[in-house]
From TrEMBL:
It comes from Propionispora hippei DSM 15287. One of its GO terms (molecular function) is sequence-specific DNA binding. This is Transcriptional regulator, AraC family. Residues 195-296 form the HTH araC/xylS-type domain. Keywords: DNA-binding, Transcription, Transcription regulation. SUPFAM superfamilies: Homeodomain-like (SSF46689).
Length: 300
């Protein structure tokens, strides 16, 4: 595996022109003189990569999975994620933006960019743009390129990063649209999530292994943990951990009504290390404490 900590070296590897800035590179794939490397060994970098590509054929891996390409696929890679592609043919449309993580240091975007979940998706789920979304994203790139290629002054970096952040905000909006629009295709990720939890409890895995982790559930559903949580949030308004908590609370209601149980024993049985945390969570979700819930139902 080859690692690139220099954008200039990465451009050289790709046979692209050298970047105008050592820590920020733009490549317009529409340029007639821009070559395309059809295949590559696994590589990693020290920079964020945003790429709009129109793939004709071939295979591209993101992490350990293959990317599901459609026309107008917007891809996001975080530093040190593994990228590999094989026999990929592209249309002469699109762009690549390379931002070294050091370029962001000292700016609010250095932390903000880490909150965008799509940089940690390790599934075959690129952002598939609608024609209208393609127009918006392309216009933003053109504005970014115009500033990037103009005479640099004390305002240049701030303007470049403001345009970049605007692009990321639009991507976040478009991903939410995609989560909602593809629910039918995905058979409702929320429903599949609940079915996986139910199966986990029904087969006795909970008794042997304790509370399932989000990583385990995501692997069962063939998505990344971050993608799972973001998709569930868009679909139901609740994150993956909130769904797990709600499921555990339902289980707790049944256990609390069994003879001889205590609040602490129920908490430990459900995988909570601290009964106090379980009691706070239960009251937050149900409106009464576990003891109050049990006493109320025992009297009925």
């Amino acid at each position: 595996m080859e690692h690139f900590n220099s954008i200039q070296e990465f451009h050289k590897y790709m046979s692209w022109p050298p970047p105008e800035h050592p820590m920020f590179g733009l490549v317009s794939l529409a340029s007639a003189d821009i070559p395309h490397r059809g295949s590559s060994q696994p590589i990693t970098t020290d920079f964020y990569i945003i790429s709009l590509k129109y793939v004709i054929s071939g295979k591209m891996a993101y992490g350990r999975t293959s990317i599901d390409f459609t026309r107008g696929s917007l891809l996001f890679y975080a530093p040190r994620q593994t990228i590999q592609w094989e026999d990929v043919a592209l249309e002469k449309i699109g762009f690549v933006i390379n931002i070294h993580e050091d370029y962001l240091r000292g700016h609010a975007l250095a932390e903000k960019i880490k909150s965008y979940g799509f940089f940690s998706y390790t599934v075959n789920e690129a952002l598939h743009l609608s024609p209208k979304e393609e127009t918006i994203v392309t216009a933003l790139y053109n504005n970014l390129a115009a500033e990037y290629n103009s005479h640099q002054d004390e305002h240049s970096k701030e303007i470049v990063l403001a345009l970049l952040e605007t692009l990321l905000k639009y991507a976040e909006r478009f991903y939410k649209r995609q989560f909602i629009g593809r629910q039918e295709l995905q058979r409702g990720l929320g429903q599949r999530f609940k079915e996986t939890l139910a199966q986990y409890f029904a087969t006795g895995k909970f008794n042997d292994l304790g509370t399932p982790s989000i990583d385990w559930i995501a692997k069962e559903l063939a998505v990344s943990p971050r993608y799972l949580s973001d998709s569930l949030k868009a679909e139901s308004g609740k994150t993956a951990i909130e769904h797990i908590h709600l499921y555990l609370i339902d289980e707790a209601k049944n256990l609390l009504l069994e003879p001889g149980t205590t609040v602490a024993s129920v908490a430990y049985q459900l995988g909570f290390e601290y009964p106090q945390y379980f009691s706070r969570l239960f009251k937050k979700k149900v409106g009464v404490s576990p003891a109050e819930f049990r006493n109320h139902h025992m009297l009925q």
